Amino acid sequence: MAKYLVETFGCQMNQHDSERMAGLLEQAGYDRTDDDRDADVIVINTCSVREKAEEKLYTRLGEIRVMGEETGSRPVVAVAGCVAQQEGEKLLSKTNGYVIDVLIGTQSLKMLPVLVSDVRGPITDNRKTPDPSSCIDHRPSPRVDLNPYDDVSFPLGVARRQDAHRAYVTIIEGCNEFCAFCVVPYTRGKERMRPVRDIVADVRHAAATGAKEVQLLGQIVNHYQAPDQACDFADLLGHVSDVDGIERIRFASPHPRHVTPRMMDAMRSLPKVCRHLHLPVQSGSTRVLQAMRRRHTREEYLDLLARLRETMPDLALSTDMIVGFPGETAEDFEQTLSLTAAARYHSMFSFKYSPRPNTLALKRLRDDVNEDEKTRRIVELQALQKTIQGELFAAAVGRVEPVLVDSKSRRREWELSGRTAGNTVVNFPGDPSWVGQIVDVRIAGANPNSLRGEPCKSK
Question: Is 155 a residue whose pLDDT tops 90?
Answer without folding.
Answer: no
